[in-house]
Amino acid sequence: MKAQKYEDVEFIIDQKTDNFKANLIWKKGGLYLSLSGLFLTDGTTWYELPVKDLDNISIIREEPLKLKFKIPSFDVTISGDHAERLLALRHFLLPYISGRIHGSEMKALLKLWAIGVREPTILKKLLGVDEEKVLELIAKARKDNILHQNGDIGPNGNNMLTDDEREFLGLED
User: Fold this and answer.
1) Within 10 A of 40 (CB to CB), how many other CB atoms are there?
2) What is the arithmetic mean of pLDDT over 148-153?
């Protein structure tokens, strides 16, 4: 596993079954990122959160910030001293999750492209498709004026995004 440390965090894992919900105690540790997923460790045990299994990432409290990562069999709540880094991670992952849930691979590609993720090998992992599909999406985006040949977001790409999304991604009207 090649993972880079992203942030020092506190976390709790809630495991769910039909008749049972187990809450573990809050643990201090680290949040690590890799191409396949997120990893949490308390220094002795590693917990994997595969990106492909994420159902949602929600803000459950703003002060101090707490994020809930929902996976079918469990939830993980994370808190850390650097709220802006945790929010950035959430916003980075949301296009992938919303793209998968709503079938909008093009919109997910557009959001990732806008934040500078343009390498097909990385895009295929984040979009959950093969590299051929990524290349087809990029070609279609250029043909449909969603992306310009020079890599900028085109007018039709801007139209696909809400005002809030454009503002967050730093795109000008």
Assistant:
1) 21
2) 87
- Asked if residues 111 and 90 have their Cβ atoms less than 8 Å apart, the reply is no
Contact call for residues 117 and 103 (beta carbons, < 8 A): no
DSSP 8-class letter at 24: P
pLDDT tens digits, 59-108: 888 888 999 998 877 889 999 999 899 988 888 887 777 545 434 788 88
Torsion of CA 117, 118, 121, 123, to 10 degrees: 60
Q: Is the peptide bond before 64 cis (omega within 30 degrees of 0)?
A: yes
- 34 burial (CB, 10 Å; 0-12 / 13-18 / 19+) is middle
Task: Work out whether strand 4-16 and strand 37-41 pair parallel, antiparallel, or are unpaired.
Answer: unpaired
Given pLDDT bands bounded at 50, 70 and 90, which one contains residue 21?
low
The token pair that represents 89 in the structure block:
């991670």
H helices, E strands: number in the chain: 6, 8
Residue 16 tokens read as 């769910």
The alpha carbon of residue 17 and the mean position of all alpha carbons in its chain are separated, in whole angstroms, by 25
| Chain position carrying tokens 């993972």 | 3
Taking alpha carbons only, the member of 32, 56, 58, 34 closest to residue 45 is 32
Please report the pLDDT score of residue 77 as a whole number. Answer: 93
